[in-house]
Amino acid sequence: MRIIIVDDEALARGVVREYLAEHADVDIVAECANGFEAVKAISELAPDLVFLDIQMPKLDGFEVAELSAGKARFIFATAFDQYAIKAFEFHALDYLLKPFSQQRFDQALAHARASIGQAGPQADGAVAAVVAMAREAAARKVPLARLLIRDGAKVHVIACDKIAYIEAQDDYVQIHSEGRSYLKNQSLSELEGQLEAARFLRIHRSYVVNIDFVERIEQATRDSHVALLADGGRLPISRSGYQKIRSAML
Question: Tell me, what's the pLDDT at 192?
Answer without folding.
Answer: 92
